[in-house]
Give the backbone structure.
Amino acid sequence: MRKILLLLCSVLLLAGQLIAQNRTVSGKVSDASGAPVANASVIVKGTRTGTTTNASGNFSFSVPAGAKIIVISAIGLAPQEYPIPANGTISATLQQDDRKMEEVIITGYQTRRKKDEAGAISTVRGKEIENLPNPSLDKALQGRAAGVLVQSNSGIPGGGINVRIRGTGSFLTGTQPLYVIDGVQLNTRSDANYTESNPLAFLNPNDIEAIDILKDAASAAIYGAQASNGVVIVTTKKGRAGKTKFQFNTYVGQATALNKLNVLNSQQLFQLRAEALGNTNNLPASDLLIKRTVLNEYRIPITNITTDKAADDAIAALPTYDWQDAAFRSGAIQNYEMSAAGGNDKTTFRISSSYNVQEAIVTTADFKRGTVKFDLSNKATDKITINTSLNASTFNQNVPFATSGSFLGSPAFASATILPFNPIYNQDGTFFGVPPQNVAGVLNQNVIAVNQFNKGFNRTNQLVGNVSVDYRIKPWLTYRPFFGVDYRLVQGKRFTDPRTPDGFNRKGFGQVESEWNTNIISTQTLNFNFNIEDKHKIDGLVGYEYRRENQEGIGATAEGFPTYQFTTLNTAATPLSTTEFFTGYRRQSVFSNLNYNYNGKYILSGIMRYDGSSRFGENYRYGLFPSIRAAWNLDEENFLQNASWVSSLRFRASYGITGNDQIGNFDGLGLYGSASPYNGSPGITFSQLANPELRWEKNKTANLGLDFSFFGNKLFGSLEAYDRLTTDLLLSQPVQFTSGFSSITRNVGSISNKGIELTLGIQPIKSARPEGFNWTSTFIFTYNKNKVAKLYDNLQELPGDPGTRVGRELGSVFTQKYAGVNAATGRPMWYDSLQNITYQPQNKDRVYIGDVQPNYWGGWTNNFTYKGFTLDIFFQYEYGKLGNDGQVNFMLENIARLNSFVDVYDNRWTKPGQITWYPRMNSAGAESKGSGAQSGSRMWFKSDYIRLKNVTLSYDLDGEVLRRLKINNARFYLQGTNLWTSSDWYSYDIEFVGTSTGIIPQSRNITAGIQLGF
Amino acid sequence: MKNIILKFSLLTLVVTGFSACRDALVIEPRQSIDATTALNSKDGINAAIVSVYSRFKSVRLYGRDLIALPEALADNGFASNKSGRLLPEANNVYRAHFGDALWSACYNGINQANLIIESVPAVNAAGITAADKTSWLAQMYFLRALYLFDMARVYSYIPGAVVAAQDKGGIPIILKGINTSEGALALKPARAGIDDVYKQIIADLTVAEATLTTAGPNFANKTAAQGLLARVYLYMKDYANAKKWADACITAAGSKLSNASAYVAQWRAATHNETLFQFTLATNAENNGVNESLQTSFSTLTAPGNTIVTGGFGDLVPSISLLNDLGISLTGGNTTANFTTVNATVATRSSDVRNQLYEPGTTGRGKAYIECTKYLGKNGFINLDNLPIIRIAEVYLIRAEALSTVGSVVYNETAALADLNTIATNRGLTAFTLSGAALYEEVLKQRRLELAFEGHRFFDLKRLGRDIIKAPHYNTVAFSDVRILAPIPTREVDGNKNLVQNSGY
């Protein structure tokens, strides 16, 4: 490979030698505002002779004697031709190019004009997501790019986010896209064990200039085996030549709960419980024995309660406490940023720092981040530019007792379900029901105390940086060595307080962990860019890349602390365990990209990447990922030149293959791993069968695209259709348990995703003057049809997993259809396979009732401007999926062992003839010879929603005031997040991934900020 | 000059950038080792053997299910519904039974054992003696037999107590180790006959008994093998062999049986003196935790008599019928209503010392029940208790049953009564003078009392073909009911046409 590369270099070098040079032309290039334009391309028309401007916009170069015209072009500006004057000095002014297509995008190792790109690439500008109170950038993409589905794991600030580009194309392996920040391919695995932590939270989103999302395989193929799920390329803000500009920005605000669950008071719950016990024991709920039983459960002394009257008085006297009120709080949001950017014609820089605090609305969970970012670019010589970008960041998250789950101490879960007559505090203000006492009921821990006493944090220290050199060997040929590092240290500590039930008997329990990940990347690229005559533009690159990643970690636990004030492990009496682990992988690749552009009309591009990864089986270490793209810029054709209503119009088509290597690092090897010890001796066990055939999942995407802009940008957008097929799908193929193993990871299946993406923008009101009233509305819509195309052995269904079957979506829900309640008896009923009523549905009665992936999703942005005012209103929506919430399941139980929804109280079956969906109460949960009341489709709910995600109102001071105040810009803004939601969802928050129980919900955030530049 | 330096530096960058090529993709795991060489050393085999033992500690095996479920599914247990666990099992809710994980864990253990059995003869690393090999093999045969036995009694009928119309045979017998993907994919075994399974169990135990040299009670040992042979033969209704091996076991065990005054105290020690074999939980890292350990399953107490501090859930408490038979009467009369409504206190106790292992729990998680205190963190940590497999007392009762069962070729009322009374008198009861059916029934009753909350009752009723009378708590489960057998994992049946699911699932 290296030989080929060298050969190619020499050919290109020779080509460059053929041009003689003998006259000097110099000048300066500025934009409409008079600011110098750096890096503008200046070439003699019809040749490859040329140069670029320096940071001050100046250029100077030799031209052949016969040269008459030079062409000056720069990214984002309209190209302009100038005749060479006799004195050889040119003062050029380039106008802003108002055509949408002139945007530039980063396509992976290259910066290109969007108009020259033939792939499906969405771009989100830093401006669009500026100042949103999101700790991480992935969250900000929600609803803003067609085809990109963003869902949260929970509402924990800095918590995990799931991003899916064009559907789920994988079953076992990762489904997250590859993130590349300023050329550094990030590791986005979460290493924090004590809370939800998002590795992308290290970056202050306000440092982002743009996010380019490579969606089709043809564009993403340049990242080969990592690109199957798409690639998100983040470019951060850099400095520009000129006077040093300072920006100060701050916002503060508050996060509050979206809603509370509507739960019962003590008397209502008592009634349900009495009915449950009564029905089970064939007694009326009003029977004194039953009432005494429940009172006894509720810890009311019953020795003296011997009459109905005494019992009823005792019931009426039960107090009700609002545990949700105690568990939820309003959280503070604060953000402070300062940046300085500037430079001269040789050196540009940008320094920024930020501090961000977000408190969760539940218990003590929070997020605190400090970042320092430094960018420097220096033109060492005419030919050599050195660049560096460093981002050092630390964020600390106080962890709640539990981020989710049906744990006794899980705040979102237990605060709604704990029996409400339990007081939270004693008379003296201390916590009620802490050890050696406890609170009544199954949830017998004081969840407020548990979350207040227990402590813990996860701290992530991260350094992402790179150094690169641009060596302009020839004006059309640049060699670029690039070295990047992504180093992350995650430290965590968790202390189970001896004053809490879990820590009481063991006198406290402490855990510490430390995990570090070293991800090093080296990329060598040779970029070329030249024209043949005037009509043929050729550009591209060849490159070699090596990436290595090592992950190591240690941890320890101990118990037996002297008092609750001692929390460090050295003070504990009994060390319990120590852990250590190591894992890692290596990857090396060569790649090339070649783009050909004929006269701005026809574009053809090809990508090849040859990738090797240590993760795969001996026989399949390397894979080839090719792609081809073509575009036709109709607007450049003569027949449309006179159609003034067409601002731009182009067709695109692409086809490519990418791979997915997001599997375990050693999945192909036959291994004996450690096993549980016995009698003090360590054990090993055959943990994994060898699979030398393990290889990449292949993702083949065909893409058709149409970009349009009509009537002077009043109507614009793009339409994409894609067919994405994943083959060699890795499945954990079950083997008979009798073999001693449960499954083998094999490349056996296939998944198809087909979809349509529409981005449609209109400007219903466009004022002639910029300060007039303008309204731009952008609607983003994605339709994705996901389907399992093939399993192994011609199976129609994965054994033991009826949700995965051929022809259906991944995550299909197969279950028995709930038929409501028998009006005569109150027993829950289901339909069997013959559509008859059954009380005890069987596996064969399961039917398809939907799936957990949305069919449609997107966003709707409205932007209004008038004078200095800007109003942004942003909605997002998801449609066509089912959800299941464990907390709701618990709260819909007919046992009344936990607090319940008012709905259950209002609608439960109580008397013959009553038609309802809520079965009669029953303390066993299931009627005799009946299935549990929670079985089947009853617990699956539609989870469609539309949410007013964000509203921003800002005001920019106008020029006159600014001049008087001697500042460059000043903006005041007010922002609200999650302001309104329309959905039928029962639980706290509709936005979550998968099946959830007791997740800490998202919050409604209101912030106000000010941004000053001087 | 500056240019030359820059160019030289760039060249260096190029070289660094490309230098990785050759061994670029080499990286070895550090927490695991290559499977092909893992069993080539003495330490490797010893560590692999450890895993065959340690798998039994899982809560899906003896860690909980094999001890607690036979009590819940049968008539010994009542579910207190304090965490909701074991409630469906105690109600005999359809499919609330031994779970899929039991099946997979047992076959995993069998495969590990098979691989060791196949590797041992050929391995000749330093320090391995012939005696080592014999001992290794004997232990593997012992444990393989135990895995097979537990599977056999859970998933199929027991010889001599079969509902013919619902009988789908025994379980697949796997005696060849699987160590390749191809081998695992190709394996589609059918169920062996019930008798074949028991033959294999006997064969493995017989080899183990003849060659075991390790010492008990934490490791497979000769006396335990004899005791288990007696138990398996009793299940098979081969009473002559049951007696033969019980004789051998009792002789070998010597004076292990506790007397009435020592019995309860022995239950507070980490290892009961009567134990022939147990799975030990040596360190607190092996703790099965507050949700599913034996202690939390059976008791809310953290120490005998201390009702102030609440520990676990106490999900399964003794049924009224068991308490009655143990000689415990509750305050206010022994009625169902009082049992489920009022905090339980003991009114009177008989002289049976075994009932001292049952006492009121705490009110920390709802009303107090009488709870079994056989497991109260005896190993020094809460929720950490050794897991009992076989005690010498059981062997006496096996022999008594073999001698008193009508039709037994070794039927001998006198000898049976002697064994029964050995147990009775060592438990604070006066000696019985019984014969015929009354004698037999008393043997079964004493077996229930002696081994309550040790994982026997469901299997004892099942091997005798008896209905499970759960009154007054729950409905009776007839022996002919499909719920007597556990469902084979659906996934397993779906993926293997040769494997027939049990009736009714």
Summary: Chain A touches chain B through 103 residues (CB under 8 Å).
